[in-house]
């Protein structure tokens, strides 16, 4: 058994253990508790719900790895969604062409990235605390969105956008494909690219990274820019899923994304954490919510259970470290 | 005096900014600089200041709490139900019930953080989701309007008729706020526990070696915030005359921004009651001033967010440090 655990840890890394066992536990529990759970319908609904939360979690992940936090993610996504909506409306609303949509997406990505650039610059150059900087950016973006929309929603989009939120390609939901592409992109960024390596360096010890010749300011600005751009992707998907944009859509996801990151074994102080365990943690959260839904509970109970799950995982981690500590002493 | 200025730089600069804003608003609008408006401001900010001084204690002790506003909603709801059971009650029993539930919720956070060594932001994000999820699940999002009379009746402590016939008044929330602010001030500046909280927040390991009971520190800090959240929740129910399960949702981040604007440091060991109160008031005054100037309410948050962003940019750096940004990128600091 221990050999199995050790080889498992060697292959997948220590962060994987928590999410992986939570995944097994959830599958077994709901598989036994509800006969409809292990069906295509469940996984289908999970596959459609996962991307919204997942893309925002990816946006949250990079800043957390540098030891920061980006609390502006949901409203950045809203603003990006609004950008697309306005471009479409300016070009004929329901009759807008694909070209207008493409232009809207580019502008949305630019808007998301711009919010990231501002945050990154303030954080990198003034060394203000990222929580505070992103918090004020969040308040600003929420206000900007409310000011421009007067609190209402913007809708009326051409039909060809619908597949982006509801369609399937070869039986796989389109939003899921986009999400998985983004997951792989982040995975490659963090494991294969210099920027990813520097991100980890900064998260572990920013002073040491700077002394070893890393341009820490540039990396921090880039990290927040990428985070903002990823929010924009989430905003576009949300536009297609809800078929409308409203400031405040997905607001309740904000703290869930932090929860998902921590559940996926990311260190709250930065420097440690990988994309794949976070992805598994997200799947676990969505399966939990779907399973509870099947058993007649609503989304709010699922939210409470998500919180309990995080406490549970942290508790088990504490038990494990305690146990190891005792073992080392004896040996 | 010079010593006072150097140790209270944030408070003094906040005060200066406030005076400038107030001076500007008194000229720009007709009724900003009036007793009536001042009292309105106090009545409106009372609940936020109660929350803010509670959060300040946790920030000084090096923690952070996301769950307090949702905790206050739980307190409101449970207190309203408990008061129904005991058949009415009064302010004393209401405050005791609300305070003890608040302390209990704070103690849960402290227990998770201290006993299982969970980082405070992770622990409180979990409890945020647990409290809010369970509250919405059990209440099904239904508000309570049927509150006891004593809770919804407006208590006016001081009133005065102005020459133009309007009434100015100070209501109970302001009194409760003043008591909470003074109590927190006494706790963190005039007691040994207060000094220990600062020491603990500044350097937990050093504090532990010095013989400070770090478990007690966690329970005191989070228990104090819980108490303030409980009291603030009850006062909010009194002020709004209703209990809405998700009314305080999202308030935690606004209060956090105000407290940190007031000079408290995320990371512990720094912060003062004066700065904290000024931080909340600065935001309220800005909002009030924009309102009086006839700016669309939809723009408030945008302007306030921009002000905080500019304020932290300026407070964290001096102009000569900003110059390299224009000149060369990536220079050593």
What structural category do the secondary elements of chain B indicate?
A: mainly alpha
Quickly count the helices of chain B: 15
> What's the helical proportion of residues of chain A?
over 70%
Distance between the termini of chain A: 20 Å
Number of strands of chain A: 4
Structural class of chain A: mainly alpha
Principal-axis shape of chain B: globular
Average pLDDT score of chain B: 83
Poorly predicted runs of 5 or more residues of chain B: 326-333
Classify the beta-strand content of chain A into a percent band. Answer: under 5%
Radius of gyration of chain B: 21 Å
Describe the structure.
In chain A, 76% of the residues lie in helices and 3% in strands. Chain A has helices spanning 2-12, 17-33, 40-65, 73-90, 98-126, 130-149, 162-166, 174-192, 194-204, 206-211, 216-242, 253-263, 275-294, 299-330, and strands at 153-155, 168-169, 172-173, 244-246. The model of chain A has no long low-confidence stretch (mean pLDDT 83). In chain A, the strands form two sheets. In chain A, strands 1-4 form a two-stranded antiparallel sheet. Chain A has a two-stranded antiparallel ribbon with strand order 2-3. Chain A is mainly alpha-helical. By secondary structure, chain B is mostly helical. Chain B is built from 15 helices and two strands. Helices cover 71% and strands 3% of the residues of chain B. In chain B, helix 3 packs parallel to helix 8 (172-190). The interface between A and B is large, with 54 and 54 residues.
